[in-house]
Amino acid sequence: MRIVLLGAPGAGKGTLCKRLVARYGLLHLSSGDILRRHRAEGTDLGKKAQSFMDSGALVPDQIVVEMMAAAIEETSAADFVLDGFPRTVNQAIELDKRLATSGHSISAVLNLKIADQVVAERMTGRRSCPRCGAVYHIKNLKPKVDGVCDSDGVALIQRPDDSPEVVANRLKTYHEQTEPLVDYYGNNCTVLDIDGGRDPGEVSAAVFEQLDALVGA
Ligand code: AMP
Hints:
Layout: E1 2-7, H1 13-24, E2 27-30, H2 31-41, H3 44-55, H4 61-75, E3 80-83, H5 89-101, E4 108-113, H6 116-124, E5 126-128, E6 135-137, H7 164-178, H8 180-186, E7 190-195, H9 200-216
Parallel strand pairs: 1-3, 1-4, 2-3, 4-7
Antiparallel strand pairs: 5-6
Adenosine monophosphate is lined by residues 9, 31-32, 35, 52-53, 56-59, 64, 84-87, 91, 161, 170.
């Protein structure tokens, strides 16, 4: 099963992916995670991506397409879930072309729908531990001591791209550049609309039900 997961930043794509991986044994390929790894390692690609990411803009298509095509090829996995990629119609066209060369195509697209206001609250309240990566929320998932990681006592930080101005920009970018993918995929593949405003257990249950029906069909 080759799945594309669409949804605004903060819609819960990362959490859902973990559950999809556990249930269906898919490989999780997140363009945001791969880009952050490049930045942390100080690669040329990471340096090129930095300013775009920090302002909430998209990294140019060519850079991301090459990076993700290499990631897909490296794994040679038949079953994967793409998280955060493609994010523009051009990226989707390129992805389809490259999959077609090995006789593959996307099996289904999950469209995680959520109101901008909910996303803004989720993202601007998010804090993470710079050492172990644990993620908290100032209202919904508080650490035992304010501002401090439960596991290692390190001061929590806000990801630069979770600041209110950048979140607003990321949402605008999503609506303008990524949402058109719903129509793009609607023309050539199965798109499953999922209400992402519920708690993560309900979201994954709804997704499993739809995917099981699709796989069983
Ligand atoms: P994410 O963690 O998926 O929200 O991605 C963080 C940032 O990485 C985004 O705000 C973009 O700047 C960049 N990024 C991730 N995936 C893509 C993509 N498919 N195309 C362009 N930029 C991307």
